[in-house]
Design brief:
Blueprint lengths: L2 E5 L4 H12 L3 E6 L11 H7 L5 E5 L5 H11 L3 E4 L6 H6 L1 H20 L6 E7 L22 H20 L3 E6 L2 E2 L8 H13 L6 E3 L5 E2 L2 E2 H13 L5 E4 L5 E2 H11 L8 E3 L17 H7 L7 H24 L14
Parallel strand pairs: 1-2, 1-4, 2-3, 4-5, 5-6, 6-11, 7-10, 8-13
Antiparallel strand pairs: 9-12
Helix pairs in contact: 1-8, 3-5, 5-6, 7-9, 7-11, 9-11
The chain binds NADP nicotinamide-adenine-dinucleotide phosphate and guanosine-5'-diphosphate-alpha-D-mannose.
Length: 345
Amino acid sequence: MKIALITGITGQDGYYLSRFLLNENYIVHGIVRRSSNFNTQRIDNLISEYGPEKKLILHYADLTDSSSIHALVSKILPDEIYNLGAQSHVAVSFLNPGYTADVSISGTTALLESIKNSPKKIKFYQASSSEMFGGKENTLLDETSLLDPKSPYAAAKVFSHNLTKIYRDSYGIFGVNGILFNHESPLRGETFVTRKISRAVGRIKNNLQSKLTLGNIHAFRDWGFAGDYVKGMYMMMQHETPDDFVLSTGETHSVKEFSELAFAHVGLDWKEFVITDKRYERPNEVHHLLGNSEKAKKILKWEPETSFEKLVQIMVEADVKKAEQEKLLISEGLLSPTWEHPIGL
Ligand code: NAP
Ligand code: GDD
């Protein structure tokens, strides 16, 4: 049985990737950072299914603490490491630039150093991002496109991306960069725009919320489904040579289009509910992202399987169900009826 170590296992991609690898008969180890609340909700169902057989094993560690990373890698000696851990919110990276950089930069460095010093040949996947391109209108972005980061988050990702290449070229480490365009799901964090919209649609439909406040609704993103993208991560790691690959759908849509479609799915007109406020705008915006994943299609035979329309439908339907449950809990006094993020994201 192959052994994988996943950083960021408690995040959106962490769930889909663990589920995929467990289905492929891997033993999966995951890093969980200390939190004052439980932070394993996304993977709780996997823990109950695979935990007792020791096929899914969790460890306390933190990407900002290199000693914890070195100790874990040398103890587990995995075949593959997937580095998904990050402070992944672009707007937050402007508010917490030092921490964002620390998680990405120290984390990747510690992992690559552990691999370099390990007696075992360990493959490494780095979660690179389309955000590194900075965005360009009417341009299909691929592995050869210029990196022009526009946020502390993207700048930190560029460092990790380049470091992975440097360790590959200098030490012959099997290190791959998956340059992934935005990918979403019902498990997407609630402060990313797609989930913020689908959640609001569910809550508005259930009379738990009256308005949705967004920032720049004219931004365009190449949105795919997270479940399709983790398969691409795995395929990159099974390819005979390490390389960098873009994963994208090749379609771009605006935040306004996403909203229109999401509200229409439950028979509502988005214009009656969506308002905009500058407080949700960023100091520097990536206006337009559109990817070209021909290389992954040709070499890995990877292609996205979920259309934009289907993605919106999956997310809205999941959040309508969630809002129905919330409504029940609120009526029983078991949940407070908040609707916006308390800090405002
Ligand atoms: P996510 O849901 O925000 O998950 C991030 C994960 O990193 C969580 O498990 C989080 O733990 C963990 N983490 C944060 N700080 C940490 C620290 N100091 N030490 C250890 N773990 C830490 O992100 P995602 O959407 O799954 O994305 C996965 C990766 O792909 C990220 O690196 C992201 O930057 C990158 N990426 C994402 C997309 C996308 O569209 N989703 C596109 C391109 C690249 P908690 O659960 O405790 O917060
Ligand atoms: N979050 C958020 N909230 N974004 C908004 C809002 C709002 O209220 N209103 C408009 N937007 C716009 C943002 O300005 C941005 O242009 C776009 O919606 C998408 O924002 P996010 O969903 O926060 O994602 P992101 O594109 O900034 O970053 C995500 O994708 C990257 C890959 O391109 C994250 O998952 C990153 O970790 C990932 O690397």
